[in-house]
Amino acid sequence: MGRTSESDIRRVARPGTDDADAAAGDEKNAAREKREADRIEAARDVDAIVDAVRQGQTMTPEMRSKVAEHYAGVAEDDNVAPRDDVTAILERIVVMDDEEAVDILVEAIALHKDDPNFPHQTMARIRRLVQGAKLADIDAADWGFQVRIEAAMIKYHSPYPEVRSVTDPYDDPSIPVETLRAYVLGIVFMAGATAINTFFSPRQPAISLGSNVMQLLVAPCGLFLAKVLPDWGVTIRGTRHSLNPGPWSYKEQMFATILFTVANSAGGTYYMYLVQKLPQYLDQKWVSFGYEIVLALAVQFFGFGFAGLLRRFVVFPVTAIWPKVLPILALNRALVRPEPKGEVVNGWRMTRYRFFMLAFGAMFLYFWIPNTLFTALHAFNWMTWIAPENFALGMVTGFYGGMGYNPLATFDWNVAGSGYLVTPWWSAIQQYGARVLSGLIIIGMYWGNYYWSAYTPINSNEAFNNKGGIYNVTVVSNGHGGIDLDAYKEYGPPYFSGANVFGQGAWFAWYPLTLFYVSIKFWDSLKKSGKEMWRSIRYRTSIWEGNVDAHSRMMKEYKEVPDWWFFAILIVSMAFGIAALKAWPTETPWWIELTVIALSAVFLIPSAILYAGANISMGFNVLFQLLAGVWFAGNAEAQIIVTAFGSNFNSQADTYISDQKIAHYAKLPPRAIFRGQMLAALLNTFIFIGMLNWMVDNFDNGTLCKWNNANHFVCTDAVLVFASAVEYGAFGVKNMFKLYPILPWCFLMGTVIGISWGLIQRYGPSVRETARSRWSEARFATWNRYLFHPLGMLNVMDPAVTWAGALNWTGGNNLSYATNGIYISFIFMYWIKRRYNAWWEKYNYILEAGFDVGVAISAIIQTLALSFGAHVTIQWWGNTVSTAGFDFKSYNQNATLLPIPDVGYFGVPPGQYPMDF
């Protein structure tokens, strides 16, 4: 079984033509000319078939082949049988009349007119087709079929080529899904990945097993079990359940994948517990296994409860494509599903599986070069090699501590490659533009010494004292998460780099901008989904009501998961959270949980919409760090608990929702996914908590999360959690705003931009048309030139997506991590997708999966073989040149534009420190 490619549509929509590359060679040109010469004669036979099918006759395989041969360009000399997905669409075409097809296209134009993911060529084509054969300048017979093929693809498949490449326009509900072997493999691999990822999570660098690696491992295990397990089973309520129901199916593979993708690592409370338990941090002796489990279960299942309620907003709508999940679907299809032999796309005959293995093998071998053998290719800061001690050159172009303005910054896929074959081109280029602009702003701030930034490294996420050293939070801590006032008066407040100040302001602006802009832009669909959810709860209507796309119609064959099931999970998780806050001395009031849920509910829908359409995750950690610092100034304990609740609420909900979208695309029963996700999340919680406690009590003679740990288990994330607890919680947001008064204004700027941009995009076109109809031609022309047309340019950009690019600074992140990626995105997501769409649909996501798996497995082997225990390094010029200059010194917080002033400090003078505690 295959997929319908853009070239298939084009060959059907334009009978007798092929892509230029696919038609290369004299033999194929001759075959194409022959098909064109025979078209008129063959059309008579096809018309007879169409008439017979419309009169009720069943379409036979011979009839399908004849129709496919005529319309899809499949001839005997191609040595290719008509694919099931092509013939499935053809069956729909022959029974559709022109009037119905035009109605479908008109509805599609209205639905997708502002959809940046809808192919522009397709939109232009259907806009031309709905005008009729004469105005479209197309032969009447060809026009009728082109209209029907476009309408059939939209109604019975998907308007998006990326979705068509990993889904089918048909479903077989009898294929086994929730089998014992699928449960066993999914749970075993989830448990193993959770244990390994939890154990190595505190290590720097960490070692992790991602879901793509698990997919590669589970497929041969499933195929093996299908061969060796006996067909033993029992019949329950008329359904037989067997150890071996037949061949390992694609749906079983997807079900097992969801079991280990929903929860396969340390849970969201992991680092919070380390900070609470360990003596070098808060040293809370009361933190027990019971507290850890109760609070972790609350945090893990908060997002799950909300995910079900968000289905109507970001799972069922056809416009929610979820680019993130497409490589997962593509890889599983390549590993499990057979393909038609001899299929040719743009001259390529290679199967998906073989292509994946070649991509995987090539990247597995290549990654040894930039990661171990020639690390200058990883950090290719070649411009700094010219003059390593040139400060300005290092800060502007540097890879490590600089800003990364380098046209060729890396040859490492793991730096600027992964994810760029998934994120839509329009999203990637808009984010990159904001990255370039925001970096220039930071450079200007730095050389202008804005807020004392020239006394710190240009692009650091550390906090600094007023003498330029790393801010030591333990100096001002009273040992209980609060501030020792006398020590603070002596030591002073924390200061931040220019990039860090800009980054925090950018986050503060992005939250309201996204909330208001997305809500205004998608108001109609949000209102529609909200009404459907209310009707479902109030009148027990179907959750599929109002969703008539092909995938939703196919999913109606399965039993629904009632909304009240998800409400029940949400209420139970709330009860666990309140119990944890009340039964143990957390210094956090129970009502804060309700506040977190209310705020998360407000932001979660815009966040999920961004993720579903533009592949942008809207993290909530900065938002809740800020709010906790306002609500509980001087209380570090409450600060980290509130942040854990809020930030993980969003990440868990995104995970659960994206897995439900996988199930939607793969046609997995919703109740099976509900049971599987619940079980996996529950077991994951007990595994990571058990591993955490064992490591705290027994690991490395009590050196866990200390800088002298021999195996590098230094817990950098725990350090950041503790530092933010003191800076946001103990030091307090009010004091930060006194130190950096620009920050609170960023909320207002984001609000104004979001509301203004949204209203202009929503109502601007209607205002313009009203002016055109009521004003004189001369008056309208003047206003159109100087107001309407410039404002209309705002439709080209999505400010929520664009400004997301401005957030990616500090902490080892700069323009170097995007520049090469934007080249990759342009080549694959723009040029190849448009020019060689058939190749793109078949291989693009497989290439992403192959490279990602190759990097992951290669990195694990290199780390275990060379770094863990042995500490092997290769010393030569290619591994030292990139670290020999101001770029690397800045990365290590040892390079600043200005020296400390003669008075011995910078910033606010002693005696004027902000002290609003």
UniProtKB/TrEMBL annotation:
Transmembrane segments: 180-200, 254-274, 286-307, 313-332, 353-371, 432-452, 505-523, 564-584, 590-612, 678-696, 711-730, 742-760, 815-832
Single GO molecular function: oligopeptide transmembrane transporter activity
Top-level taxon in the UniProt lineage: Eukaryota
UniProt-annotated location(s): Membrane
UniProt biased composition (Basic and acidic residues): 1-11, 25-39
Main location: membrane
Keywords: Membrane, Peptide transport, Protein transport, Transmembrane, Transmembrane helix, Transport
Chain residue ranges for the region called Disordered: 1-39
Coiled coil regions, renumbered to chain: none
Membrane keyword on record: yes
Gene Ontology cellular-component terms listed: membrane
GO biological process, any: protein transport
UniProt key word Membrane: yes
Annotated membrane topology: Multi-pass membrane protein
Membership in a protein family: Belongs to the oligopeptide OPT transporter family.
Name the record gives this protein: Oligopeptide transporter 2
